[in-house]
# Entry
Amino acid sequence: MRFIIIGAGLGGLECGYLLSKQGHEVCVLEQGNQIGGCLQTFERHGQRFDTGFHYVGGLGEGEILHQLFSEFNLLNLPWQQLDTECFDEIFLNGEHFVFANGYENFAEKLAESFPAERPALLKYVSLLKSSQEGLADLGNMASSSVTGELLATSAFQYLNDLF
# Structure
């Protein structure tokens, strides 16, 4: 098969690598003058800025990024485990919401703030887990569990319908 990947950021480069490793023909297109997407630095008014990612979740055994980072030989970097009970906090209109690490923990922490949404949150993380399992065979979308109606639905529409 032949694939065109739009964007030479981390995700585009990783996809290109995995697909080419499976024997597919891959063309990666980038509009900028360098690859890396958000994994870059730039200078403005004499100051250097790092736009790279600042935390990575999902590196635990059995999680999708553990599998991918292992594939790319990145697990030997000095990763530091973030607080599993709160890797990110959202402050909105005077309210405080916590994002926890791990599928079920993520859903349960948000359900503390939105108890009526617990079933939808659990359904959402179930979708995330099944999507991860479907990514195991990136070159064969027909065998993926992430096909059909779900791919024809925008993320906004899915979340709007679910919640």
Observations:
- The two ends are 37 Å apart (CA to CA).
- The CA atoms of residues 42 and 49 lie 5 Å apart.
- The chain has five helices and six strands.
- Residues 118-134 form the longest helix (17 residues).
